[in-house]
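Q: Convert this sequence to structure tokens.
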Amino acid sequence: MNYRPDIDGLRAVAVLAFHFQVPEDEPPLGLRPALAVVSFLLAFLSWRWVEQPLRNSARVPTRWLMGGGGSRGRATKEGLELVAAEAGVPALLIRRAGCLPLFGVSKQETAATRARDAACRAADDRILQVLPQLPKRILLFARWSYYAGGTGNSGDQMNRITLMDDAGSAAPYEAAVARPLEQFTAAGKNVHIMRQLSEIQDYASAPVARRLAKGGDVALPMIEVSCVRAEARSAAGHAPFAAAGVLGMIAAWSRLCSTDSHGALMLRDLFAPLLSRAAGASS
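A:
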């Protein structure tokens, strides 16, 4: 294991040493007990009035929304962050790249190691343990079509993924979705799904940048995607949620015209109803 020193901690020690230098002469014997008492008193006051209040979870603002997902959740982070700040409403985002935000489901993926697959399941199990304490509104992000079809698309079409249940048997995507939705419902949660955005898998920034730098044209097939094709691919991923009567399906296709992840800023009003204090009493 490599050791990396805490640079900020070293700086803090250096500052303290500069401002509060220890005198070379030891204090008189009669003064030492008093200094020890003062040191103990300061430590107690710091523990009582600084550390304990910060450790008290009851002082943490109540979250109105929990967002969960993998890299799709990260891509939308800026939009959620901004709308939460504008609404003055705290939210909680839990994400782990490459992980399906559903409980009781394991995966085997050719693009991931077995250790990463196991880490995804362990993380979901930990979230399940605290499910009753999570906000009432749940927003899930994922590359739903990938999990539904079991294969990648265009540029990553060689990737394969298999979903499995607790017994280690292959689990149909519909069943993998149905079980956690039942758990959310039993816990009194209102589930919302972020509709998967269309994928431009043939696009790669490096080749496009090199071509533009040399004065060349960028082939339209690299930056365009057929809506009909994208709709057909995503339909299987969204179908189980529609069949289960999920409360909300947030669609953003018509709002984006580029692959810039910070387009999430333009989508923030889509999440505003989930962070509305007025709606909090009824949902």
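The two ends are 48 Å apart (CA to CA).
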